[in-house]
Amino acid sequence: MMEKFMEYVRQLRELSEVLVEMGSNLMQVDDQILALAQREKRACSSIVYSLETLAWPQLHSHAQDFSMASRNIVMEAHLIRPAHFTGITCTVYQRPEVSTGSVGMEMAESAHEQQLRFHCSTGSHNTSLNNSARKNSVALASVTLPATLFPPDAPADCKLQFVAFRTGRFFPLSGNSSRQWGALSQT
Predict the structure, then answer these.
(1) From which domain of life does this come (predicted)?
(2) Number of structural domains the chain divides into
(3) Nearest 10 degrees: CA dihedral of 79, 82, 83, 87?
(4) Would the pLDDT of 184 be above 50?
């Protein structure tokens, strides 16, 4: 269903936010239902593909960065020039959000309810979570791409995107995967 909306994201940027929230909400569906939907209609693959391609139509010379965050999905995309690429490090993190309870007591939200965040920094320097916006945050994943990522004959402009999912629920094991693994491990 999400892929049917993809042709309209260039015209209506708010649609991107709706699609990311839709994907985030679908991640809360029972694992067995997601696995069944994947087997019968490749539904999880379709959702992931839609989310992975969401930023592409929105990156151009006048909009070189794209960022979306939800409770279960976070993405960041950049239009880069390989000739000037100095490397990039992106970290997915969550910060314990504090909400005020009805009695005035502060309560930390459960980890599942905390919105994911992305922080990317360019260059080869080492980054940390000590910045005030990321202080007291928990890093969940990080990736570093070196300055040598692109070959000398790379196109003048390239699109680079990072997408992180809170869980692997959109990547259910197929029914045959455990049997295949068992057959491979016995040989």
Answers:
(1) Eukaryota
(2) 1
(3) 100
(4) no
